[in-house]
Protein backbone atom coordinates (compact mmCIF):
# COMPACT_ATOMS: atom_id res chain seq x y z
CA UNK A 1 0.00 0.00 0.00
CA UNK A 2 2.86 2.37 0.78
CA UNK A 3 4.31 1.69 -2.67
CA UNK A 4 0.96 2.54 -4.28
CA UNK A 5 -0.09 5.59 -2.23
CA UNK A 6 2.95 6.51 -0.17
CA UNK A 7 3.16 6.77 3.61
CA UNK A 8 0.12 7.79 5.63
CA UNK A 9 2.59 8.22 8.50
CA UNK A 10 5.81 6.53 9.64
CA UNK A 11 6.15 3.73 12.17
CA UNK A 12 4.68 0.30 12.81
CA UNK A 13 1.20 1.74 13.38
CA UNK A 14 1.38 3.49 10.00
CA UNK A 15 2.19 0.21 8.26
CA UNK A 16 -0.63 -1.61 10.02
CA UNK A 17 -3.21 1.09 9.22
CA UNK A 18 -2.14 1.12 5.55
CA UNK A 19 -2.42 -2.67 5.58
CA UNK A 20 -5.94 -2.51 7.01
CA UNK A 21 -6.98 -0.21 4.17
CA UNK A 22 -5.40 -2.38 1.45
CA UNK A 23 -6.57 -5.72 2.83
CA UNK A 24 -10.14 -4.51 3.35
CA UNK A 25 -10.39 -3.25 -0.24
CA UNK A 26 -8.95 -6.51 -1.62
CA UNK A 27 -11.32 -8.63 0.49
CA UNK A 28 -14.29 -6.47 -0.54
CA UNK A 29 -13.58 -7.25 -4.19
CA UNK A 30 -13.00 -10.95 -3.41
CA UNK A 31 -16.26 -11.21 -1.45
CA UNK A 32 -18.27 -10.53 -4.62
CA UNK A 33 -17.04 -13.88 -5.94
CA UNK A 34 -16.27 -16.13 -2.98
CA UNK A 35 -16.93 -16.39 0.77
CA UNK A 36 -14.30 -14.97 3.13
CA UNK A 37 -13.48 -18.35 4.61
CA UNK A 38 -10.26 -20.05 5.70
CA UNK A 39 -9.16 -20.34 2.06
CA UNK A 40 -8.98 -16.55 1.90
CA UNK A 41 -7.65 -15.97 5.40
CA UNK A 42 -4.82 -18.53 5.47
CA UNK A 43 -2.83 -17.18 2.47
CA UNK A 44 -3.08 -13.63 3.85
CA UNK A 45 -1.78 -14.75 7.25
CA UNK A 46 1.12 -16.60 5.64
CA UNK A 47 2.01 -13.63 3.42
CA UNK A 48 1.75 -11.24 6.35
CA UNK A 49 4.10 -13.32 8.51
CA UNK A 50 6.50 -13.80 5.59
CA UNK A 51 6.93 -10.07 4.95
CA UNK A 52 6.96 -9.27 8.68
CA UNK A 53 10.14 -11.32 9.04
CA UNK A 54 11.57 -10.76 5.55
CA UNK A 55 11.47 -6.97 5.95
CA UNK A 56 12.42 -7.21 9.65
CA UNK A 57 9.43 -5.11 10.68
CA UNK A 58 9.87 -6.31 14.24
CA UNK A 59 12.78 -3.87 14.51
CA UNK A 60 10.17 -1.08 14.67
CA UNK A 61 9.32 -2.18 18.20
CA UNK A 62 12.89 -1.60 19.38
CA UNK A 63 12.57 2.13 18.68
CA UNK A 64 10.51 2.61 21.84
CA UNK A 65 12.30 3.86 24.93
CA UNK A 66 11.88 1.91 28.17
CA UNK A 67 9.47 4.57 29.43
CA UNK A 68 7.36 4.43 26.27
CA UNK A 69 7.57 0.64 26.17
CA UNK A 70 6.17 0.44 29.70
CA UNK A 71 3.31 2.79 28.79
CA UNK A 72 2.48 0.76 25.67
CA UNK A 73 2.53 -2.45 27.72
CA UNK A 74 0.06 -1.01 30.24
CA UNK A 75 -2.20 0.12 27.38
CA UNK A 76 -2.12 -3.30 25.74
CA UNK A 77 -2.90 -5.16 28.97
CA UNK A 78 -5.77 -2.78 29.73
CA UNK A 79 -7.21 -3.28 26.24
CA UNK A 80 -6.85 -7.07 26.46
CA UNK A 81 -8.72 -7.15 29.76
CA UNK A 82 -11.49 -4.79 28.61
CA UNK A 83 -11.91 -6.74 25.38
CA UNK A 84 -12.42 -10.03 27.25
CA UNK A 85 -15.83 -9.05 28.70
CA UNK A 86 -19.12 -10.29 27.30
CA UNK A 87 -20.47 -8.29 24.32
CA UNK A 88 -23.38 -6.08 25.35
CA UNK A 89 -24.12 -3.87 22.30
CA UNK A 90 -27.44 -5.14 20.91
CA UNK A 91 -26.28 -4.69 17.32
CA UNK A 92 -23.66 -7.35 18.07
CA UNK A 93 -26.42 -9.97 18.12
CA UNK A 94 -28.86 -8.52 15.60
CA UNK A 95 -26.47 -7.12 13.00
CA UNK A 96 -22.72 -7.74 13.47
CA UNK A 97 -22.64 -11.53 13.90
CA UNK A 98 -25.31 -12.33 11.27
CA UNK A 99 -23.40 -10.11 8.80
CA UNK A 100 -20.14 -11.92 9.54
CA UNK A 101 -21.79 -15.33 9.15
CA UNK A 102 -23.11 -14.43 5.70
CA UNK A 103 -19.73 -13.05 4.62
CA UNK A 104 -17.74 -16.09 5.78
CA UNK A 105 -20.22 -18.63 4.35
CA UNK A 106 -21.37 -16.92 1.15
CA UNK A 107 -19.60 -13.57 0.69
CA UNK A 108 -21.60 -10.57 -0.56
CA UNK A 109 -25.02 -11.94 -1.54
CA UNK A 110 -27.07 -9.99 -4.06
CA UNK A 111 -30.22 -8.56 -2.48
CA UNK A 112 -29.42 -9.83 1.02
CA UNK A 113 -31.29 -6.81 2.44
CA UNK A 114 -34.53 -8.59 1.46
CA UNK A 115 -33.82 -11.23 4.09
CA UNK A 116 -33.05 -8.71 6.82
CA UNK A 117 -32.83 -5.00 5.99
CA UNK A 118 -29.92 -4.39 8.39
CA UNK A 119 -27.82 -6.86 6.40
CA UNK A 120 -27.94 -4.35 3.54
CA UNK A 121 -25.28 -2.33 5.37
CA UNK A 122 -22.49 -4.96 5.08
CA UNK A 123 -19.95 -2.47 6.44
CA UNK A 124 -16.39 -2.65 5.10
CA UNK A 125 -15.30 -3.10 8.70
CA UNK A 126 -17.27 -6.33 8.90
CA UNK A 127 -15.65 -7.50 5.69
CA UNK A 128 -12.28 -6.91 7.38
CA UNK A 129 -13.42 -8.72 10.55
CA UNK A 130 -14.92 -11.59 8.54
CA UNK A 131 -11.60 -12.19 6.79
CA UNK A 132 -9.93 -12.85 10.15
CA UNK A 133 -12.81 -14.63 11.93
CA UNK A 134 -12.20 -18.19 10.72
CA UNK A 135 -8.88 -18.85 12.44
CA UNK A 136 -7.09 -15.74 13.73
CA UNK A 137 -9.96 -14.07 15.59
CA UNK A 138 -12.85 -16.50 16.18
CA UNK A 139 -14.01 -14.45 19.19
CA UNK A 140 -14.49 -11.35 17.00
CA UNK A 141 -12.25 -8.99 18.97
CA UNK A 142 -10.76 -7.11 16.00
CA UNK A 143 -11.71 -3.83 17.73
CA UNK A 144 -9.39 -4.67 20.61
CA UNK A 145 -6.56 -5.06 18.10
CA UNK A 146 -7.44 -1.67 16.59
CA UNK A 147 -7.27 -0.07 20.04
CA UNK A 148 -3.79 -1.53 20.48
CA UNK A 149 -2.76 0.00 17.15
CA UNK A 150 -4.24 3.33 18.27
CA UNK A 151 -2.20 3.26 21.48
CA UNK A 152 0.95 2.52 19.44
CA UNK A 153 0.13 5.46 17.18
CA UNK A 154 -0.23 7.84 20.12
CA UNK A 155 3.14 6.86 21.57
CA UNK A 156 4.97 6.69 18.22
CA UNK A 157 3.73 10.11 17.10
CA UNK A 158 4.06 11.65 20.59
CA UNK A 159 0.47 12.91 20.29
CA UNK A 160 -0.49 12.16 23.84
CA UNK A 161 -4.09 13.44 23.79
CA UNK A 162 -5.14 10.17 22.11
CA UNK A 163 -4.45 8.41 25.41
CA UNK A 164 -7.33 10.44 26.89
CA UNK A 165 -9.76 8.92 24.37
CA UNK A 166 -8.51 5.37 24.76
CA UNK A 167 -10.36 4.49 28.02
CA UNK A 168 -13.73 5.65 26.64
CA UNK A 169 -13.17 3.64 23.47
CA UNK A 170 -12.63 0.52 25.59
CA UNK A 171 -16.43 0.32 25.68
CA UNK A 172 -16.32 -0.73 22.00
CA UNK A 173 -13.64 -3.40 22.40
CA UNK A 174 -15.91 -6.43 22.92
CA UNK A 175 -17.73 -6.25 19.55
CA UNK A 176 -16.77 -5.55 15.91
CA UNK A 177 -18.68 -2.26 16.04
CA UNK A 178 -17.90 0.03 13.05
CA UNK A 179 -18.27 3.01 15.40
CA UNK A 180 -14.81 2.37 16.84
CA UNK A 181 -12.75 2.37 13.61
CA UNK A 182 -14.47 5.49 12.26
CA UNK A 183 -13.76 7.40 15.48
CA UNK A 184 -10.14 6.25 15.65
CA UNK A 185 -9.39 6.76 11.95
CA UNK A 186 -11.02 10.19 11.93
CA UNK A 187 -8.89 11.28 14.91
CA UNK A 188 -5.75 9.96 13.20
CA UNK A 189 -6.56 11.80 9.95
CA UNK A 190 -7.35 14.99 11.88
CA UNK A 191 -4.08 14.70 13.74
CA UNK A 192 -2.13 14.20 10.50
CA UNK A 193 -3.78 17.17 8.82
CA UNK A 194 -3.16 19.48 11.78
CA UNK A 195 0.45 18.22 11.91
CA UNK A 196 0.88 19.29 8.26
CA UNK A 197 0.74 15.93 6.46
CA UNK A 198 0.37 16.87 2.78
CA UNK A 199 -0.02 13.42 1.23
CA UNK A 200 -3.43 14.29 -0.17
CA UNK A 201 -3.87 11.07 -2.13
CA UNK A 202 -3.69 8.75 0.89
CA UNK A 203 -5.46 11.17 3.26
CA UNK A 204 -8.44 11.57 0.94
CA UNK A 205 -8.50 7.87 0.06
CA UNK A 206 -8.45 6.96 3.74
CA UNK A 207 -11.20 9.50 4.49
CA UNK A 208 -13.41 7.94 1.81
CA UNK A 209 -12.59 4.52 3.29
CA UNK A 210 -13.86 5.75 6.69
CA UNK A 211 -17.02 7.05 5.01
CA UNK A 212 -17.45 3.63 3.36
CA UNK A 213 -17.26 1.98 6.79
CA UNK A 214 -20.02 4.26 8.10
CA UNK A 215 -21.66 6.90 5.84
CA UNK A 216 -22.50 9.18 8.79
CA UNK A 217 -18.79 10.11 8.59
CA UNK A 218 -19.45 12.13 5.42
CA UNK A 219 -17.79 15.15 7.06
CA UNK A 220 -14.34 13.50 6.90
CA UNK A 221 -13.88 13.19 3.10
CA UNK A 222 -15.55 16.60 2.80
CA UNK A 223 -13.01 18.06 5.23
CA UNK A 224 -9.97 16.49 3.53
CA UNK A 225 -11.22 17.56 0.10
CA UNK A 226 -11.82 21.19 1.13
CA UNK A 227 -8.52 21.32 3.03
CA UNK A 228 -6.59 19.95 0.07
CA UNK A 229 -8.10 22.54 -2.27
CA UNK A 230 -8.23 25.64 -0.05
CA UNK A 231 -5.38 25.06 2.43
CA UNK A 232 -2.83 22.96 0.54
CA UNK A 233 -3.80 24.29 -2.94
CA UNK A 234 -3.73 20.86 -4.60
CA UNK A 235 -5.21 20.03 -8.02
CA UNK A 236 -7.78 17.27 -8.49
CA UNK A 237 -5.38 14.48 -9.50
CA UNK A 238 -4.78 13.18 -5.91
CA UNK A 239 -8.50 12.48 -5.47
CA UNK A 240 -8.54 9.67 -8.05
CA UNK A 241 -7.82 6.87 -5.53
CA UNK A 242 -10.54 8.07 -3.18
CA UNK A 243 -13.06 8.19 -6.04
CA UNK A 244 -12.21 4.56 -6.92
CA UNK A 245 -12.93 3.53 -3.29
CA UNK A 246 -16.18 5.51 -3.40
CA UNK A 247 -17.27 3.71 -6.57
CA UNK A 248 -16.47 0.34 -4.95
CA UNK A 249 -18.60 1.39 -1.97
CA UNK A 250 -21.51 2.30 -4.25
CA UNK A 251 -21.18 -0.98 -6.16
CA UNK A 252 -21.15 -3.00 -2.93
CA UNK A 253 -24.30 -1.24 -1.69
CA UNK A 254 -26.15 -1.65 -4.99
CA UNK A 255 -25.26 -5.36 -4.95
CA UNK A 256 -26.54 -6.08 -1.43
CA UNK A 257 -29.13 -3.30 -0.96
CA UNK A 258 -30.17 -2.09 -4.39
CA UNK A 259 -29.29 1.59 -3.85
CA UNK A 260 -25.88 3.39 -3.68
CA UNK A 261 -26.04 4.41 0.01
CA UNK A 262 -27.72 2.39 2.77
CA UNK A 263 -30.43 3.01 4.02
CA UNK A 264 -31.37 5.90 1.72
CA UNK A 265 -33.55 4.90 -1.23
CA UNK A 266 -32.00 7.50 -3.56
CA UNK A 267 -30.39 6.71 -6.91
CA UNK A 268 -32.83 4.03 -8.04
CA UNK A 269 -31.25 1.99 -10.84
CA UNK A 270 -34.29 -0.25 -11.13
CA UNK A 271 -32.51 -3.46 -10.08
CA UNK A 272 -34.83 -6.40 -9.45
CA UNK A 273 -33.43 -7.16 -6.00
CA UNK A 274 -34.02 -3.77 -4.34
CA UNK A 275 -36.21 -3.97 -1.19
CA UNK A 276 -39.95 -3.52 -1.50
CA UNK A 277 -40.99 0.17 -1.09
CA UNK A 278 -43.34 -0.74 1.74
CA UNK A 279 -40.47 -2.32 3.72
CA UNK A 280 -38.38 0.82 3.23
CA UNK A 281 -41.31 2.94 4.36
CA UNK A 282 -41.66 0.88 7.55
CA UNK A 283 -37.90 1.26 8.14
CA UNK A 284 -37.98 5.05 7.71
CA UNK A 285 -40.88 5.29 10.15
CA UNK A 286 -38.94 3.24 12.67
CA UNK A 287 -35.88 5.51 12.21
CA UNK A 288 -38.05 8.54 12.94
CA UNK A 289 -39.38 6.93 16.11
CA UNK A 290 -35.80 6.05 17.14
CA UNK A 291 -34.98 9.75 16.87
CA UNK A 292 -37.36 10.23 19.78
CA UNK A 293 -36.14 7.11 21.59
CA UNK A 294 -39.41 5.26 20.79
CA UNK A 295 -41.18 7.53 23.31
CA UNK A 296 -43.72 8.63 20.68
CA UNK A 297 -45.64 6.71 18.03
CA UNK A 298 -45.18 7.54 14.37
CA UNK A 299 -48.68 9.02 14.26
CA UNK A 300 -47.91 11.29 17.23
CA UNK A 301 -44.67 12.51 15.63
CA UNK A 302 -46.51 13.28 12.39
CA UNK A 303 -48.72 15.69 14.33
CA UNK A 304 -45.72 17.63 15.75
CA UNK A 305 -45.37 21.27 14.84
CA UNK A 306 -41.92 22.60 13.90
CA UNK A 307 -41.48 23.77 17.51
CA UNK A 308 -42.59 20.36 18.83
CA UNK A 309 -39.93 18.56 16.77
CA UNK A 310 -37.22 20.55 18.54
CA UNK A 311 -38.78 20.82 22.03
CA UNK A 312 -39.62 17.12 22.30
CA UNK A 313 -36.15 16.10 21.08
CA UNK A 314 -34.59 18.17 23.86
CA UNK A 315 -37.00 16.92 26.52
CA UNK A 316 -36.90 13.15 26.03
CA UNK A 317 -37.05 11.14 29.23
CA UNK A 318 -33.71 9.85 30.50
CA UNK A 319 -30.12 10.42 29.42
CA UNK A 320 -30.87 10.85 25.68
CA UNK A 321 -32.14 14.42 26.15
CA UNK A 322 -28.94 15.35 28.03
CA UNK A 323 -26.83 13.96 25.19
CA UNK A 324 -28.89 15.91 22.64
CA UNK A 325 -28.51 19.16 24.57
CA UNK A 326 -24.77 18.56 25.00
CA UNK A 327 -24.47 17.92 21.25
CA UNK A 328 -26.03 21.26 20.29
CA UNK A 329 -24.05 23.12 22.98
CA UNK A 330 -20.82 21.53 21.70
CA UNK A 331 -21.56 22.72 18.17
CA UNK A 332 -22.23 26.26 19.41
CA UNK A 333 -19.04 26.34 21.51
CA UNK A 334 -16.98 24.95 18.63
CA UNK A 335 -18.43 27.53 16.23
CA UNK A 336 -17.43 30.33 18.59
CA UNK A 337 -13.98 28.76 19.03
CA UNK A 338 -13.60 28.61 15.22
CA UNK A 339 -14.60 32.27 14.84
CA UNK A 340 -12.05 33.32 17.49
CA UNK A 341 -9.19 31.23 16.01
CA UNK A 342 -9.82 32.35 12.41
CA UNK A 343 -7.69 29.53 10.98
CA UNK A 344 -8.52 28.06 7.58
CA UNK A 345 -8.17 24.41 8.59
CA UNK A 346 -10.25 24.77 11.77
CA UNK A 347 -12.91 26.69 9.82
CA UNK A 348 -13.11 23.88 7.27
CA UNK A 349 -13.37 21.28 10.06
CA UNK A 350 -16.19 23.27 11.65
CA UNK A 351 -18.09 23.67 8.36
CA UNK A 352 -17.75 19.94 7.63
CA UNK A 353 -18.99 18.99 11.09
CA UNK A 354 -21.96 21.35 10.80
CA UNK A 355 -22.94 19.91 7.41
CA UNK A 356 -22.78 16.36 8.81
CA UNK A 357 -24.80 17.42 11.88
CA UNK A 358 -27.53 19.00 9.75
CA UNK A 359 -27.81 15.83 7.64
CA UNK A 360 -28.06 13.65 10.76
CA UNK A 361 -30.71 15.92 12.30
CA UNK A 362 -32.74 15.80 9.09
CA UNK A 363 -32.59 12.02 8.52
CA UNK A 364 -32.49 10.45 12.00
CA UNK A 365 -31.15 12.42 14.96
CA UNK A 366 -30.04 9.44 17.07
CA UNK A 367 -27.10 10.09 19.38
CA UNK A 368 -25.18 7.10 17.99
CA UNK A 369 -24.95 8.93 14.66
CA UNK A 370 -23.18 11.97 16.10
CA UNK A 371 -21.03 10.45 18.87
CA UNK A 372 -17.88 11.07 16.80
CA UNK A 373 -18.55 14.83 16.84
CA UNK A 374 -17.78 15.01 20.57
CA UNK A 375 -14.36 13.42 20.03
CA UNK A 376 -13.52 15.72 17.11
CA UNK A 377 -14.49 18.92 18.92
CA UNK A 378 -12.60 17.93 22.07
CA UNK A 379 -9.53 17.00 20.04
CA UNK A 380 -9.39 20.21 17.98
CA UNK A 381 -9.96 22.46 21.00
CA UNK A 382 -7.60 20.79 23.48
CA UNK A 383 -4.87 18.89 21.59
CA UNK A 384 -2.28 21.58 22.37
CA UNK A 385 -3.09 21.47 26.08
CA UNK A 386 -2.55 17.78 26.81
CA UNK A 387 1.12 16.88 27.19
CA UNK A 388 2.40 13.43 28.14
CA UNK A 389 1.96 13.77 31.92
CA UNK A 390 -1.59 15.14 31.77
CA UNK A 391 -2.64 12.54 29.20
CA UNK A 392 -1.18 9.62 31.17
CA UNK A 393 -2.98 10.77 34.34
CA UNK A 394 -6.29 11.01 32.46
CA UNK A 395 -5.66 7.62 30.85
CA UNK A 396 -5.06 5.86 34.17
CA UNK A 397 -8.01 7.55 35.91
CA UNK A 398 -10.54 6.94 33.13
CA UNK A 399 -9.29 3.39 32.50
CA UNK A 400 -9.90 2.55 36.15
CA UNK A 401 -13.40 4.03 35.90
CA UNK A 402 -14.32 2.19 32.70
CA UNK A 403 -12.91 -1.16 33.88
CA UNK A 404 -14.87 -0.73 37.12
CA UNK A 405 -18.08 -0.10 35.16
CA UNK A 406 -17.46 -3.16 32.97
CA UNK A 407 -16.65 -5.31 36.01
CA UNK A 408 -19.45 -4.02 38.26
CA UNK A 409 -22.17 -2.55 36.02
CA UNK A 410 -24.78 -2.53 38.80
CA UNK A 411 -23.93 1.06 39.76
CA UNK A 412 -24.40 2.24 36.16
CA UNK A 413 -27.69 0.34 35.92
CA UNK A 414 -28.86 1.82 39.21
CA UNK A 415 -27.94 5.48 38.67
CA UNK A 416 -28.51 5.77 34.89
CA UNK A 417 -31.31 3.27 34.15
CA UNK A 418 -32.26 5.14 30.95
CA UNK A 419 -28.85 4.25 29.45
CA UNK A 420 -30.17 0.96 28.07
CA UNK A 421 -26.85 -0.39 26.84
CA UNK A 422 -25.67 -0.53 30.45
CA UNK A 423 -28.49 -2.90 31.36
CA UNK A 424 -26.96 -5.58 29.10
CA UNK A 425 -23.54 -5.54 30.81
CA UNK A 426 -23.02 -8.68 32.87
CA UNK A 427 -19.88 -7.88 34.83
CA UNK A 428 -16.67 -9.82 35.41
CA UNK A 429 -16.48 -13.56 34.84
CA UNK A 430 -13.33 -15.43 35.95
CA UNK A 431 -13.34 -17.51 32.75
CA UNK A 432 -12.60 -14.41 30.67
CA UNK A 433 -9.03 -14.42 32.03
CA UNK A 434 -8.39 -17.46 29.82
CA UNK A 435 -10.83 -16.87 26.96
CA UNK A 436 -12.91 -13.88 25.79
CA UNK A 437 -16.52 -14.22 26.94
CA UNK A 438 -19.12 -15.10 24.31
CA UNK A 439 -22.75 -16.16 24.35
CA UNK A 440 -24.22 -19.36 22.92
CA UNK A 441 -27.90 -20.10 22.36
CA UNK A 442 -28.39 -22.60 19.49
CA UNK A 443 -32.19 -22.79 19.68
CA UNK A 444 -34.05 -22.27 16.44
CA UNK A 445 -36.92 -23.46 14.28
CA UNK A 446 -36.91 -24.09 10.53
CA UNK A 447 -39.67 -22.88 8.19
CA UNK A 448 -40.35 -22.52 4.49
CA UNK A 449 -42.28 -19.87 2.58
CA UNK A 450 -42.35 -20.23 -1.20
CA UNK A 451 -38.94 -21.47 -2.34
CA UNK A 452 -37.08 -20.04 0.68
CA UNK A 453 -36.28 -22.31 3.61
CA UNK A 454 -34.95 -20.37 6.61
CA UNK A 455 -34.27 -20.55 10.34
CA UNK A 456 -35.73 -18.41 13.12
CA UNK A 457 -34.29 -18.13 16.62
CA UNK A 458 -36.53 -19.88 19.15
CA UNK A 459 -37.98 -17.45 21.72
CA UNK A 460 -35.24 -14.88 21.12
CA UNK A 461 -35.41 -11.72 18.96
CA UNK A 462 -31.95 -12.01 17.33
CA UNK A 463 -30.28 -14.58 15.09
CA UNK A 464 -26.69 -14.24 16.29
CA UNK A 465 -25.89 -17.96 16.33
CA UNK A 466 -28.80 -19.29 14.31
CA UNK A 467 -27.56 -21.16 11.21
CA UNK A 468 -28.03 -19.11 8.06
CA UNK A 469 -30.14 -18.41 6.17
CA UNK A 470 -31.85 -16.91 9.20
CA UNK A 471 -34.46 -14.17 9.65
CA UNK A 472 -35.16 -12.20 12.82
CA UNK A 473 -38.82 -12.55 13.94
CA UNK A 474 -39.43 -8.80 13.69
CA UNK A 475 -38.64 -8.83 9.96
CA UNK A 476 -41.06 -11.66 9.32
CA UNK A 477 -43.81 -9.53 10.89
CA UNK A 478 -42.76 -6.55 8.74
CA UNK A 479 -42.75 -8.65 5.57
CA UNK A 480 -46.20 -9.98 6.40
CA UNK A 481 -47.46 -6.45 6.94
CA UNK A 482 -46.03 -5.42 3.55
CA UNK A 483 -47.47 -8.50 1.85
CA UNK A 484 -44.11 -9.60 0.48
CA UNK A 485 -41.52 -12.25 1.35
CA UNK A 486 -37.91 -12.79 0.22
CA UNK A 487 -37.48 -15.51 -2.39
CA UNK A 488 -34.39 -17.12 -3.87
CA UNK A 489 -33.48 -15.96 -7.38
CA UNK A 490 -32.31 -19.53 -7.94
CA UNK A 491 -33.82 -22.09 -5.59
CA UNK A 492 -30.69 -24.23 -5.91
CA UNK A 493 -28.08 -21.51 -5.22
CA UNK A 494 -28.29 -18.97 -2.39
CA UNK A 495 -25.33 -17.05 -3.85
CA UNK A 496 -27.53 -16.02 -6.78
CA UNK A 497 -29.30 -13.80 -4.27
CA UNK A 498 -32.77 -12.80 -3.15
CA UNK A 499 -35.63 -10.83 -4.59
CA UNK A 500 -38.74 -9.41 -2.85
CA UNK A 501 -41.98 -10.89 -4.18
CA UNK A 502 -45.64 -10.38 -3.46
CA UNK A 503 -46.93 -13.47 -1.66
CA UNK A 504 -49.40 -15.78 -3.31
CA UNK A 505 -52.45 -16.85 -1.23
CA UNK A 506 -50.67 -20.13 -0.46
CA UNK A 507 -47.48 -18.33 0.65
CA UNK A 508 -49.54 -16.01 2.87
CA UNK A 509 -50.91 -19.07 4.64
CA UNK A 510 -47.35 -20.44 5.06
CA UNK A 511 -46.12 -17.09 6.44
CA UNK A 512 -49.10 -16.85 8.81
CA UNK A 513 -48.25 -20.31 10.16
CA UNK A 514 -44.70 -19.08 10.85
CA UNK A 515 -46.03 -16.03 12.72
CA UNK A 516 -48.49 -18.14 14.72
CA UNK A 517 -45.69 -20.52 15.71
CA UNK A 518 -43.47 -17.61 16.81
CA UNK A 519 -46.29 -16.12 18.88
CA UNK A 520 -47.08 -19.47 20.50
CA UNK A 521 -43.46 -20.16 21.43
CA UNK A 522 -43.08 -16.62 22.83
CA UNK A 523 -45.94 -17.33 25.23
Shape: globular
Distance between the termini: 55 Å
Structural class: mainly alpha
Mean pLDDT: 89
Strand order of the largest sheet: 1-2
The run of helices and strands is: HHHHHHHHHHHHHHHHHHHHEEHEEH
**Computed CA radius of gyration, to the nearest angstrom:** 23 Å
Could you describe the largest sheet, including whether it forms a barrel?
A: 2 strands, antiparallel
Quaternary organisation of the protein chains: single chain
The beta-strand count equals 4
What is the overall number of helices? 22
Describe this protein's structure.
With 523 residues, the protein is mainly alpha-helical. It is 58% helix and 4% strand. The protein is built from 22 helices and 4 strands. It has a two-stranded antiparallel ribbon. It has a two-stranded antiparallel ribbon with strand order 3-4. It is globular. The mean pLDDT is 89.
Could you give the topology of this structure?
Layout (H helix, E strand, L loop, with lengths): L1 H4 L6 H19 L7 H17 L11 H17 L7 H16 L18 H8 L10 H16 L4 H8 L9 H16 L5 H14 L5 H12 L9 H17 L20 H15 L6 H5 L3 H9 L4 H23 L2 H20 L7 H12 L5 H20 L2 H6 L28 E6 L2 E6 L15 H10 L1 E5 L9 E5 L2 H18 L1
Antiparallel strand pairs: 1-2, 3-4
What tags apply to this protein structure?
single chain; 523 residues; mainly alpha; two-stranded antiparallel sheet; 22 helices
Amino acid sequence: MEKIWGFLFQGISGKIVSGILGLTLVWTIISFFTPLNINVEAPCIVLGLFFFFKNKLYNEFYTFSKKDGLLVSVCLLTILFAGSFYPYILDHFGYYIPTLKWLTEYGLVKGISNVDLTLGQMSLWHIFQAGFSNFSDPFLRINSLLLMIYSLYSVERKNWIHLCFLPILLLFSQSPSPDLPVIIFSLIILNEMIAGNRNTAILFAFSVFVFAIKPTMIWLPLMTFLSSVFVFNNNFKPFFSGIIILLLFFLKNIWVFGFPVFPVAIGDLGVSWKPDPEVLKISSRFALMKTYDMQYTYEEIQKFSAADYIKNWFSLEGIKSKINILFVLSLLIFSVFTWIKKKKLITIICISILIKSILVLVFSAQYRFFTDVFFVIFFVMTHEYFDRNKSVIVFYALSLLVISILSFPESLQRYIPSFRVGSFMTGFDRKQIFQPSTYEYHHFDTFKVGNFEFNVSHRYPYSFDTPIPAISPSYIFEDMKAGIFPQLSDKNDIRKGFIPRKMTPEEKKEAQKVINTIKDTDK
